[in-house]
Amino acid sequence: MKKIFWLFCLQVILSNVEGQQNSSASIARWKDSKKAALSLTFDDCINGQFTVALPLLNQYNFKSTFFLTIKNVQPQAGGWGLIQQAARDGHEIANHTMTHPFMHNLLTDSMAFEFDECNRLIKQNIPFAKAETMAYPYGDGGDSSAADQLVRDVAYKYFIAARAVQYRSVFYNEYDFAKTNDDYYRVNSEMIVDSNSIKTFPQHLDSTIKLGAWYAPTYHGIENGWLIVKKEDFEKQLQQINERKDLLWIAPFVNVIKYIKERSCANIKIIKDEKHKTVLRLTDTLNNSTWNEPLTINVKLNGKVKRVMQNKKSIMFSIINNTLTFDAVPGKDIIIKR
User: Is 307 within 8 Å of 314 (Cβ atoms)?
Assistant: First the structure.
């Protein structure tokens, strides 16, 4: 079934690309038509991530992902209260297992418990959290061995995607890195910890932008804990990101994953183009109850636009150089009134 699904998606992609050559409507590579994507991710649930990093992230309005290891949630250090605040601030709270085991050493039932119980406690303490993604402890699950594949086989049942560690020579994920469904469970990630990784960080941002790729670095301790990045170094990195924010879509891991998969399986077509109204059909092959990240649509139009609507609701839009831009979730026709 997975092979059939991805063959169908490939057909949609090819027809979409072919259609866009002769059409005035297209789906942007990244949200808000940015050049590249960036997801800052944090592993293990270390106190400094919430007491030091979180206020700085909020200061810049950079939404990130915190992969929780439940055994590290410490009530005496703020515990779930700090995590709940991060969720209310718009950051993703996701799964990094209950006890941070070496997954290769576990039977499948034990893997399932680590995933399922972690998700249960996240949702118990943060009812609006969906816990749709995870990061593998020690990277077990992200490589190409049979043991890694077994971990992924279990992860498929609980998550829509998973972040690995850097298992390839490159630090980024290519724009079209996901050739199969399995690739969504092997997202590449550079660990930010030593002086060299901190030094090369701005270069890696620039390379990501140049390549139109997705960079999803991993942090552990911020100022305290283990694998520590000092506060001053972390703040400097946020400043370097801020200098490039006009070119980078900075978003949680789950949002970028959804955008990539929706974009890959989506098709946009103009079905009516009249003097005062244009109707677009934006569809994909996915269940929109889960895959609900708005895609950025660009439409070449001459003249003014009064309103853009989807499902009888108005959509925010902008017009620059005769290009109309707006965000919409696949599944309902879009009406442009001129």
Answer: yes
Q: Which two tokens stand for residue 216?
A: 């999803």
Distance CA 62, CA 332 (A): 30
Q: Which of 99, 35, 90 is nearest to 68 (CA)?
A: 99
Cα-Cα end-to-end distance for the chain: 44
Q: Say what the pLDDT of residue 16 is.
A: 43
Please state, in angstroms and rounded to a whole number, the distance separating the CA atoms of residues 261 and 267: 12
Would you state the pLDDT for residue 302? Answer: 72
Phi, psi at 119, each rounded to 5°? -60, -40
**Nearby residues of 140 by Cβ (< 8 Å), 6 or more positions away:** 102, 103, 104, 147, 148, 151
pTM here is 0.91
CA distance 237 to 136: 25
Gap between the Cα atoms of 336 and 324, Å rounded: 10
For 141: left if phi > 0, alpha if psi spans -120 to 50, otherwise beta; the answer is left
Largest Cα span, the chain = 65
SS3 state at 136: coil
Q: What is the C-alpha to C-alpha distance for residues 48 and 221, in angstroms, rounded to an integer?
A: 6
Residue segments in the chain with a per-residue pLDDT below the cut of 50 = 1-8, 10-23
What gap in Å lies between CA 125 and CA 299, rounded to an integer?
43
